[in-house]
Amino acid sequence: SADSTLLVQLKGIGPSYANRILKYRELLGGYISKEQLLEVYGMDSARFVPILETVRVDTTIRVRINLNTADVKQLLKHPYIDLNLAKSIVNYREQHGSYKRLSELKNIHLVKEETYRKIAPYLKVP
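Above: the chain's sequence. Below: its structure in token form.
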């Protein structure tokens, strides 16, 4: 939930990195782990390690995409979901009806365990 003013107070984080962190947080729908900061463009371990103990992630501040209403375009906005996966998620719903549980995503051939672990926190079923 930090804004750019707070982020630039971190060692090695200037205005440019602060903006990148905020933009990526927006794309994700919120951070669920500190390690996701390494996915921010240009972030490396030399910049990440010194701030590791200083940053805190609030996993309750997260936007989730509704699997039963999202279209391909909405799914594609998430950085962990590519075009093929977005189409597969929508096609599965069209063929099998509304998702009852998130774990149904594992029935899609493109959703391996690692993919599921990455995308599940950002998805929901009513």
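The longest helix spans residues 15-28.
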